[in-house]
Fold each of these.
Amino acid sequence: MLPRVWTAAALAVTLFSIPLLADSTTISEADAKALDQKIMTEAKTKSEIIANLSHLSDMIGPRLTGSENLKRANDWTAERMKAYGLENVHLEPYEIPVGWERGTAAAKFIDPSPGRPILIASAGWAPGTKGKVEAEVVIFKATKREDLAQYKGKLKNAVILRGEPRKIEPVTTVYQPGQLGPRPMGGGPGGGGAPGGEGRGRGGNRPAGGPPGDFSSNPAFQQMQQFAQEVRDFLRAEGAVAIFTDSAKPHGLLVTTGSWRGRERASEQESIPQLFVAHEHYAQLWRLASRPAPATTKIEIEVNNKMIPGPITVYNTVGEIKGSEKPDEFVVVGAHLDSWDLAQGTTDNGTGSSIVLEVARILAKSDIKPKRTIRFVLFSGEEQGLHGSRAYCERHKAELPKISMALVHDTGTGKVVGFGLQGREVLKPIFEKETASLKEIGFKEITTRGMGGTDHASFERAGVPGFACVQDMGEYRFTHHTQSDTLDKANEENLIQGAQVMAVTAMRIANLDQLLPRDKPKREFPKKDDAKEQKKDDKKDDKKDDKKDPERIVAPKRIG
Ligand SMILES: [Zn+2]
């Protein structure tokens, strides 16, 4: 029979070969600390993160939801999990209503500056232009239903500029290593929303001091989405060619985002083409289109995309280490495997996926049996609205009360500097104690702040404590959803640190005597006027966070 209390010295010799905790009920803090060290050393000395990330990035490539590439990645990650000795490795299917394939997207000036190319990228699940079209560039300023009338009959063959060009800070002032950014820059979900005002919202903002989290039930957000749909329908009915949105990133970076709508099928998806435009070109188009009549700005555009009629089956990759004492209680360690398709999906989110595999490798290989089952989940459909993690929560509904925590990594290649506990004040002392060993590797702070926009939010919504790592933003604000999200951006040292943080935390939480408490203050959405005030406050906050107090940890408000 194994002794219940292990000395650190004994641990140092025997760990990774002898099943620990097999019949123990309480682990001494000294033993737990020794275990932390062992885990961190294994992560540091035998890392397979870059090997796995290279395969995902260079050999498989971008992993758009519903694509063959993503299925390849599902199969390959399942193989990795099996090779690492995980149990119950399988793919969990769910359906999306329609698939999408990116085609070519080209535009150039006709008048003025004839022949000069305009850099564009289509939003996901947006249609093409049905051939080459000559279009006039028109500024469209409607912000409410009553504003639409003034454009009636004036938008035939028009390309619409939606919103003023964003102010872009020089990269020399934006990119400061070690700075924790409030959110990625740009027209993606982190910035101005998808073209035509669509998008998944700025989850994680903090209306009126309530705990942050999911925004889809916010009436103001719903109203905004409804108006965006009205605008698309109006523009389409008026014969407009496409909607242009500023990519809002520096130096020619393009972004993409977008999704199918609801449960609609392909035939109902035929909305209006929506394109992101390189900031430099968008700003020029805006200047030109701002000239008084009779000046006109003409361009040529051709976009070819393909809707793939569904429903299409997509998968989450799942594997686990069975708990030694409470196998039917769980800790979920996750990241999303799907990516956007302008580059390789390295930092969003090959990095998180490779870290999840690495945590699986370390904890499985070590022969340390956690008390609870640790389940590793690589979600899909995250980029189109957290579909994979929602499907997981739905499929595992009966288990939800027994999931102690879901922990997600999804802010690129930067170090993990803390956790935001989504308003769950009661967990703060627990996490402060359990993560003490991580201080030595740059893990700084546990806060109650929250963020939205990645898969932990699906667990939070289902009442399960769900957290995303707070990370040093580094270049993530540039790589996020752009053609620059490539393998060369990966930082091995930081990724190893991420695996250390997630592995230690998962093991610690899996070994607690109890499931984490569920108490969470109730969330209230602000009334309209409050929302405006809150927006101002947030802006002030962001400035303060960025400029005056760069050391302060700020949860990215919109990340994945
Ligand atoms: Zn992501």
Note: The chain has 15 helices and 16 strands.
Amino acid sequence: MIRARSTRVFAAGACLATTFLAHDAAAHPWHRHRGDEARASEDASATTSDRSSGREATDLPFILTAAPRTPPARGLDIADAFAAFEKLGQISTRRDDRWFFVESNGLPDHPLMVGIRNWQQQVPLPQTYTGDNAWRIPLQPVRAREPASTKNRFLRGAIALAVNGIPIFNPLNNRGEDALAIGELDEYGGHCGRADDYHYHVAPLHLEKIVGKGMPIAYALDGYPVYGSTEPDGSPMKPLDACGGHEDGAGGYHYHALEKYPYLIGAFRGEVIEREGQVDPQPRAQPVRPALPPLRGATIVGFESPAPETRKLVYEVGGRRGSVEYTVAGDGSVQFTFVDPAGRRTTESYQPRPRGGGGPGGGAPRPERGPPRPGPEPGPGAPRPDPTQPRQGGRAAMDPNGPGADAGSRRLASRAIAVSSPAFETGGKLPAKYSCDGAGISPPVAWQPGPSGTQSYALTLWHRSPDGVKSYWVVYDIPADITQIPEGARSVGRMGLNDKRRAEYDPMCSKGPGAKEYHITVYALSGRPQVAAGGASRATLLEAIGDMALAEGTLTFSFERGVRP
Ligand SMILES: [Zn+2]
Ligand SMILES: [Zn+2]
């Protein structure tokens, strides 16, 4: 695969040089026939209705049978570019005198997610890119005096909208890395952001098969179309300027897409408004759950649809498989079932939050300040998503009374053990002495003995934040004959590293209003996890535990600054 950064050819500035590389016809990794692959992304919302025909999109290479609505005096009318997918029921469009609006649920009608080997644990969920949260393309693009480079700007949000209603983000992720080159993308060039919003990071050249050569595959958010490898008249692509496009000979301008970096739109030739690092306005993706951290070493190997509203993502890590299965209900609530590679099964449910809306008069108040925006990108340095919390349940890891108690076909003989604290009630409030408001010592913890064969115990104290799981306390190598830790103990087992990389208890000290939920999970292990001498973080420990867990249990409690229980 050709992904050399040396092909990065444009510099910020005028799009004058014809330095964009010629189109390379080599096969690219996200482009393939649909064949017999699972139809992975059928509707989970109202905007997709015409999927019952069962026709493969590849059977429809020239479905643009409708005559252009307006004779293309100066080229194509934008509506014609989107007509193929509007006919398929995947998008709907409208316009006013300024904008062309595209509504979609953000889910493409092609297999997705498979092939990602740098996965942030997000999954595709339907989005409400509708109403005043629809995508909007300027109907009268205005040539910018100075093109705005996308090389180190516009690293957040979309820079273009594909004609199937899926946003295209900058090929560089918001850390400036080539998202395709580092394995973040599926075979179609897409993945999910922190709001579980699916988007592409490279040009969706596979759409050429559906819309036909010579039709745009996308529109840049400055209003100029993006073509694939051929000119609108079917002739081979002419040389490109540093923006990745050229004059169209009729007073207009268009871009072309390449199969390798810089893929598309090296700079905006048309005027765009930049606000907080992204093109403004653009819709906002709405998370229903907190974002998760990357799952290192995982590759997504399957994405299926076992039932109409259910999706099942299967990943492989260390030669073993885990899965995330989720069902979207009519009211937008989502029920997740996670089975980790050790066979542990947990469930979570989330309710949709009121949408903030992407434009003026956008309905319910936005939960967070800031402009409307698509889903923030995964990874360090990403903007924070809304601090959504599960409305019910949360993680119910092995809680015998919780919704995750159904062990189903779990491979291991995993069992639940009760975990408690003599200092506070299960589900209760953490006394201040165990927080930064007090002495900040670790709380006492007790647990039921594990099953026979238990060789050691491990314990973690964690919290699920919008940024992922935070870890405050890690203890392992606790001898099998011990079933409690007194408060402030430092000599039971071995202390692992908290998120501050210190081998100690990190007292709860949450900023911000409201009580937050924390969890102490105790694992009964069939052996002693092997970790490096420097000590184990929670992630390292869980990796080392692998399938050693014979049983586990979680004690949940809440803590709020300055509130004395
Ligand atoms: Zn992304
Ligand atoms: Zn051209």
Note: The longest strand covers residues 468-479.
